[in-house]
Specification:
This protein is an alpha/beta fold and 268 residues long. Helices cover 54% and strands 13% of the residues. Helix 4 crosses helix 6 (169-197) and helix 5 runs antiparallel to helix 6. One of its GO terms (cellular component) is mitochondrial inner membrane.
Length: 268
């Protein structure tokens, strides 16, 4: 079983933060050590045994490519200072700052997730929290499907630049964006499914402090109002939560500060 631990709270005006991490209670098979030969054998086996081989093989191929991209990115990160690879890594970091925080959030909801645990300020209504999560999930299925197909259409054009004697940065960026939108799309669909599977009348339970558990472990949807998060948010001003308050929240709930700060000025 895999649980997504989410933290939801208003960060500035009508802008809400959606962030979290994945709790792995069971390890899943990885394609990190796959070779092309292994990939082909698995695809061939899926064609014979899987009732829906197209989707299974598409997921397998995307995982294989993403692992290769991650290895290449690590190689750029470790490159000597001032080298071409090091400069490409710096360019990649600047491009990554343009990725919307909601996309990063939706990508964190993998297909293996079986339930979600949502922590939110105790002053908020549980139904409002659920509606906001449904909204971001539903919108994600629309937005990222559109951008996924758009990125796919650009792959043949950018691949033509490989004839130039320089690294084909546009192709690899478009390839990354294609993968990223695919993962965000699948995360949106999974989150929407989990929300829809949850009974409307589910009781979120009593307010808690960080680290406590509810008794609704079998439910795909567990809402946990947090007094600790509420007290941290009350320290914010009229112009939204300051960087200091955001840092304290991230430290208390194990969130990424840079990802959370992006929500202050994000429109989606």
């Amino acid at each position: 079983m895999m649980r997504a631990r989410l933290v939801v709270f208003p960060i500035r005006g009508r802008n809400w933060c959606f962030s979290g991490s994945i709790d792995h209670s069971a390890s899943s098979e990885s394609t990190s050590a796959f070779t092309l030969k292994d990939l082909w054998k698995t695809i061939s086996a899926n064609a014979k045994s899987n009732p829906n081989p197209l989707n299974a093989n598409a997921e397998l191929l995307i995982d294989f490519v993403s692992n290769k991209m991650n290895k290449a990115w690590i190689g750029l990160e470790k490159a000597p200072e001032g080298s071409l690879k090091n400069k490409l890594h710096g360019l990649g970091l600047r491009l990554l700052t343009r990725v919307k925080p909601s996309e990063l959030f939706l990508k964190s909801i993998s297909k293996e997730v079986t339930n979600v645990q949502v922590t939110y300020p105790s002053s908020l209504d549980a139904r409002l929290v659920r509606r906001r999560l449904r909204h971001i999930a539903l919108r994600g299925t629309i937005i990222h499907k559109k951008y996924f197909y758009g990125s796919v259409s650009l792959l043949p054009l950018t691949s033509a630049l490989s004839v130039l004697p320089l690294p084909n940065v546009p192709f690899f960026w478009v390839l990354f964006r294609t993968y990223s939108h695919w993962r965000a799309l699948k995360g949106s669909e999974k989150l929407l499914q989990l929300v829809s599977d949850c009974p409307q009348t589910q009781n979120p339970g009593v307010p808690n402090v960080k680290g406590s558990e509810t008794k609704q472990d079998n439910s795909p949807w567990v809402l946990q109002p947090s007094k600790e998060l509420e007290e941290l948010i009350r320290r914010g001003g009229n112009d939204g939560l300051s960087k200091c308050v955001v840092s304290d929240i991230c430290k208390a709930f194990g969130l990424n500060v840079n990802d959370v700060l992006k929500y202050r000025n994000s429109l989606y």
